[in-house]
């Protein structure tokens, strides 16, 4: 084999190996720029007595959600303007992630943001793509090449420099927030049986308005087999992502029973049977 061909093949193999390297043991939260976490979701919210957290594979969506950084205990939920949300009685903790300066990152947007952040952190930026309300599919890979979609997502033109950086990713997400929402996300996700509810699933009602909340953690009582879950939401106007209380729990617990009694009542929305969805 000629030396030049051998060298090229070795370089190609090295590039593939670099992409395939295992992820760091510590989940990555790119918006924090390496700052250490004061506490995570798993640190802040303990399982109920007799329960333990369900297993989560290293590098998984479930592990990443459990490691979300939290704002200090007792923090209020702030809107995109910096003002407190009008209701401060629906949450038990606030996720330490920016909400932006515009009224964009609402309920479905916050869920898409978290999903995309995990994919970006997991070196899977090529898998980041969302449907617009008018039906177009908008992948980050095209945005990173300098292409820009129309408001329907069905046509594109090259109008920017190629940029796959994190700031470019955030600009892409703001664009997604402008033209996607519960209507599009509801149709993008697949129905999931509540008997098999899992971390990362979404309760969603698509519409104008609609609402969506994210299953962020799960626990199980090994003796009884009972499972419970936590829910995250943003809402209108755009506001910080927060862990919801369970309005059916007299003690203010945030844990919801996986044996759902429909409709699923959350502090600001009720979801009908059949509203549990999962990423394809």
Task: Give an overview in words.
By secondary structure, the protein is α+β, with helices and mostly antiparallel strands. The chain has one domain (28-280). It is 24% helix and 20% strand. It is built from seven helices and 15 strands. The chain has helices at residues 3-19, 41-44, 61-66, 107-121, 140-144, 166-179, 182-188, and strands at residues 52-53, 91-94, 129-131, 137-139, 147-149, 156-158, 190-191, 202-205, 211-220, 227-233, 242-244, 256-257, 264-266, 269-271, 276-278. Strands 1, 2, 7, 8, 9, 10, 11, 12 and 15 form a nine-stranded antiparallel sheet that branches. Strand 8 (202-205) and strand 9 form a beta hairpin. Helix 4 (107-121) runs antiparallel to helix 6. The termini are far apart. Residues 1-24 have low confidence and may be disordered.
Order of helices and strands: HHEHEHEEHEEHHEEEEEEEEE
When the domains are counted, the total is 1
Basic shape: globular
Helix content: 10-25%
Report the β-strand fraction as a percent range.
15-25%
What is the typical, i.e. mean, pLDDT?
A: 91
Number of helices: 7
What is the straight-line distance between the termini? 44 Å
Radius of gyration: 20 Å
> Pairing-aware structural class of the strands and helices?
alpha+beta
User: Uncertain spans, ≥5 residues at pLDDT below 50?
Assistant: 1-24
Give the number of DSSP strands.
15
Main sheet: strands, sense, barrel:
9 strands, antiparallel
